[in-house]
């Protein structure tokens, strides 16, 4: 897993909390920083894809590991 | 990329109807939409400081129940005095167990995400409601004023 500046564990939280929490965390970060999000909601895969497309933040990585979903989002 | 606008008109005040406007609005706001919700008629219940939202199986044939009960539960049973209370309790417990946010939390997230919450002035007057019953940070306006935003919205939903 690539380096990240901050981690957000959204395990156990369901739609729309993972992206809402991610948005809040990203707001407090500087451009270029990377946020690592961990989620258990299967819907979050498509949600983060859409989130990246709509907000212009880059979704660097999206994968499933150990039963959880991991996302790396770079703030643009 | 121009900012998209989402307008929601919320007209219902029961627990099951409370989730869609707040979830859609908060998600849209997270995706960068400029969002406003116009609460009218029973939708005003969603703006009260102290939320006491209920859900009833009566008249809700589509409401799933544990064990597939909804398939054979007679309508008369759904009208029994304690059914509304039980169903509301079960729904709330389910939401908590599945990690879904409560209405209060979703509402707070909406306000944090700068979703504009607007109360229909006419309905407030109609039902003799006291403005102090509602949460802070909301606006009071009429339909015409809301149409200014709704008319330019990319998505307008009636809930």
Would you kindly provide a written description of the structure presented here, covering whatever features stand out?
The complex is a heterodimer of chains A (76) and B (159). Chain A has a single domain, classed as TusA-like domain (Translation Initiation Factor IF3, 2-Layer Sandwich). Chain A is built from 2 helices and 4 strands. Chain A has helices at 17-27, 44-55; strands at residues 6-10, 34-39, 58-65, 68-74. Chain B has a domain at 5-56 and 102-158: 3-Layer(aba) Sandwich (Hypothetical Protein Ychn, Chain: A). In chain B, 37% of the residues lie in helices and 15% in strands. Chain B contains 6 helices and 5 strands; from the N terminus they run βαβαααβαβαβ. In chain B, strands 4-3-2-1-5 form a 5-stranded parallel sheet, with helices on both faces. Chain B is globular and about 50 Å long. The model of chain B has no long low-confidence stretch (mean pLDDT 93). Chain A binds chain B through residues 12-17, 19-20, 22-24, 41, 50-51, 54-56, and chain B through 1, 23, 26-27, 30-32, 98-101, 109, 112-113.
Query: Mean pLDDT of chain B, rounded to whole units?
Result: 93
Q: Estimate what percentage of residues of chain B fall within beta strands.
A: 15-25%
**Count of β-strands of chain A:** 4
Q: Most extensive interface, residues per chain?
A: A-B, 17 and 14 residues
Give the topology, please.
The complex is a heterodimer of chains A (76) and B (159).
Chain A: E1 6-10, H1 17-27, E2 34-39, H2 44-55, E3 58-65, E4 68-74
Parallel strand pairs in A: 1-2
Antiparallel strand pairs in A: 2-4, 3-4
Chain B: E1 5-10, H1 15-30, E2 34-39, H2 75-78, H3 83-97, H4 103-112, E3 116-120, H5 121-126, E4 139-141, H6 143-150, E5 155-158
Helix pairs in contact in B: 1-4
Short description:
The complex is a heterodimer of chains A (76) and B (159). Chain A is of the alpha+beta class and 76 residues long.
């Amino acid at each position: 897993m690539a380096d990240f500046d901050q981690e957000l564990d959204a395990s156990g939280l369901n739609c729309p909390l993972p992206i809402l929490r991610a948005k809040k965390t990203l707001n407090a970060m500087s451009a270029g920083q990377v946020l690592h999000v961990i989620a258990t909601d299967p819907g979050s895969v498509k949600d983060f894809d859409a989130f990246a497309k709509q907000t212009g933040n880059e979704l660097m990585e999206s994968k499933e590991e150990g039963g959880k979903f991991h996302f790396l989002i770079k703030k643009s | 990329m121009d900012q998209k606008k989402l307008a929601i008109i919320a007209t219902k005040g029961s627990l099951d109807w409370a989730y869609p406007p707040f979830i859609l609005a908060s998600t849209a706001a997270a995706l960068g939409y400029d969002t406003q919700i116009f609460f009218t008629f029973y939708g005003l219940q969603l703006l009260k400081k102290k939320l006491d939202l209920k859900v009833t199986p009566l008249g809700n044939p589509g409401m799933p129940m544990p064990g597939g009960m909804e398939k054979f539960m007679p309508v008369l049973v759904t009208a029994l005095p304690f059914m509304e209370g039980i169903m509301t309790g079960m729904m709330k417990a389910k939401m908590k167990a599945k990690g879904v946010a409560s209405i209060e939390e979703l509402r707070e997230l909406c306000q944090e995400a700068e979703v504009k919450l607007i109360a229909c002035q006419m309905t407030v007057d109609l039902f003799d409601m006291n403005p102090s019953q509602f949460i802070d940070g909301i606006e009071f306006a009429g339909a015409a004023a809301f149409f200014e935003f709704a008319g330019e919205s990319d998505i307008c939903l009636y809930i």
